[in-house]
Design a protein that fits this description.
Number of strands: 0
Largest sheet: none
Distance between the termini: 39 Å
Helix content: over 70%
Number of helices: 11
Structural class: mainly alpha
Shape: globular
Strand content: under 5%
């Protein structure tokens, strides 16, 4: 086990260590594997969409907490785009509607009503606890640690691509227009990762800090995994 006296990894080595944590991304969770293989029932799909919505609506609050802790103006200018990406831009119509609205449309495509999503009545306690823990972390951690926790986005484009590739064939009952959220997030996640990695590589420059960053990333991976554990138990 490394100690605080160990030499820092180079930027390249540190990034490789961060990316290696993708082995624990929830793309490998049994529930998501079954989703990818087309083995979930309509009730399971709806349960996943309804519970994941709680995560979606909390993302802007998480990002707002990071902004509130950040004294750097340039970072705030870039980070605020994440909030708008989810809450919506300008008139919040059409292409400006944002990720939360896109997720609502996904919900409608799988047979959920807007009221069912926004009421959060389908959210199970384990999902609520996990998401709240993540938002609470962002509120109290140094802003650089909040940024680091968002680096699970490094692994997100593949999971979105998988859904776009498999859902139309496996779940023909879902309106393909409802999959726009997955389409939009591929390019946005790639953009956000570039900034998040830059902040993380610039700030976590000693071995002790780098190991702290890996712990933070693992914490976020555990949050996402725990959400699927709770969903899988609620929708066996």
């Amino acid at each position: 086990m490394s100690t605080t006296t160990d030499a820092a990894w180079s930027r390249t080595e540190f990034e490789a260590q961060l990316r290696a944590r993708g082995a624990g991304y929830h793309i490998h969770h049994p529930f998501n594997v079954r989703m990818h293989e087309g083995l979930l029932s309509a009730d399971q799909i709806r349960g996943w969409v309804a519970n994941r919505f709680y995560y979606q609506v909390n993302i802007p609050q998480k990002d707002g907490a990071i902004l509130a802790n950040c004294p750097d103006r340039e970072t705030r200018r870039r980070w605020v785009r994440r909030i708008l990406d989810h809450d919506g831009w300008d008139d919040c119509e059409g292409g400006h509607a944002g990720g939360i609205e896109a997720w609502v449309r996904l919900g409608e495509a799988v047979g959920l009503t807007r009221d069912a999503l926004w009421s959060q009545r389908h959210v199970v306690p384990g999902v609520r606890f996990a998401v709240d823990a993540y938002v609470n972390f962002a509120r109290h951690a140094p802003w650089q640690e909040g940024v680091c926790s968002s680096l699970t986005e490094m692994f997100a484009p593949q999971i979105h691509k998988d859904r776009l590739a498999t859902w139309p064939a496996h779940y023909r009952w879902i309106d393909p227009a409802g999959l726009d959220y997955f389409r939009s997030r591929i390019s946005l996640a790639e953009r956000d990762v570039e900034h998040g990695l830059q902040v993380t590589l610039d700030h976590f420059t000693t071995r002790a800090l780098q190991e702290r960053a890996l712990d933070i990333l693992q914490f976020k991976l555990d949050i996402l995994w725990a959400m699927l554990d709770a969903i899988e138990k609620a929708y066996p």
